[in-house]
Amino acid sequence: VAAAFGLLSSLSVVVLGDESGYAANEHQKMKLAAIEAMWETERAPADFTAFGIPNQQTHQNDYAVKIPYLMGLIATRSLDQPIPGILELVDHAEHRIRGGQLAYAALEHIRADRNDRQAREMFDRHWQDLGHGLLLKRYRDDILNATPEEISRAAMDTVPTVLPLFWTFRVMAGLGFYLIAFFAVAFYYSCRNNFENKRTFLKIALWTLPAPWIAIECGWFVAEYGRQPWAVDGVLPTFYAASGLALHQIVLTLTGFVALYTVLMIIEVKLMLKAIAKGPDEILPSLQPPASPHAAAPTAGQA
């Protein structure tokens, strides 16, 4: 049952991953381009870079090994729809930053005069770009007077650091396919009722225990790091979303969490060590084979 459940779960993750890739192309194009380290927009259908060393300075991938057409099929499910590259998205972000400046200026006029119809019309045209305009707050408070260089830097800030994102995704995907193969072998051995005799496989199973957790953490890293610099994608920059808590409040909160989970970890480890020391026979006596009713009774004179 466990092997079958593991196999089905691992296969279902592939389906969910395919859906996530398609959704990312619709709503988080920069994250998808960074995961793929796709600097330039490629001709459709785009290739999938299985291996490479992204270079953020030269905007190239060193030693790239590509699988033709795969990325286009995953992200667009078509053969003719291109996937925008990082540099094209940066140009688009720069355009949106300029639109965000107009929205910010209109909002300032509306605050001064709620009946300013011209300002409201301007804001209605550019309000969706306001979040991009706020990216300039990293460089100056009066974003309406930002220089072209500052606008270019803010647009480049929409690109997360590609190298860790690129490789974390591939570690996650590699572990996913490894778990499919592992559970397929486990299911095969279970159906033949001889998995307990496969000592090498059982050793591999022991070392495989951390794999799902590593894959999960890689997935969270891709999700959270890949959306930078946004706390809310396209709306609220991360640096602008910091709370107003004082330093001592943050330290106190983190200390409380660390203390609580440390106590829970100590309790859990002690319980596990106690269970291991008892052994399976004492914990699960029902697993012991019953005494045979045909066992010979001791005869008189025998000790």
The residue ranges in which pLDDT falls below 50 over 5 or more consecutive positions are none
The CA-CA distance between the termini, in Å, is 47 Å
Query: What's the rounded overall pLDDT mean?
Result: 89
Question: How many separate structural domains?
Answer: 3
Compute the number of strand runs. Answer: 4
- Approximate helicity band: 55-70%
Work out the strand percent: 5-15%
- How many strands, which pairing sense, and closed or not: the largest β-sheet? 2 strands, antiparallel
Spatial ordering of strands, largest sheet: 1-2
The Rg value, from CA coordinates, equals 29 Å
Class by helix and strand content?
A: mainly alpha
- The helix count comes to 12
Helices and strands, in order, run as: HHEEHHHHHHHHEEHH
Shape: globular
Kindly describe this structure.
This is Cytochrome ubiquinol oxidase subunit I. It is found in: Cell inner membrane. Keywords: Cell inner membrane, Cell membrane, Electron transport, Heme, Iron, Membrane, Metal-binding, Transmembrane, Transmembrane helix, Transport. Belongs to the cytochrome ubiquinol oxidase subunit 1 family. It comes from Stenotrophomonas nitritireducens. This protein has 303 residues and is mainly alpha-helical. The protein has three domains: 2-37 and 42-83 and 161-226, no CATH class; 86-156, no CATH class; 243-283. The protein is 61% helix and 7% strand. The chain has twelve helices and four strands, in the order ααββααααααααββαα. It has helices spanning 2-27, 29-36, 70-76, 86-112, 117-126, 130-134, 148-156, 162-191, 199-208, 211-226, 247-278, 280-283; strands at residues 48-55, 60-67, 230-232, 236-237. The chain has a two-stranded antiparallel sheet with strand order 1-2. The chain has a two-stranded antiparallel sheet with strand order 3-4. Strand 3 and strand 4 form a beta hairpin. Helix 1 (2-27) packs across helix 2 and helix 4 (86-112) packs across helix 7. It is globular, with a radius of gyration of 29 Å.
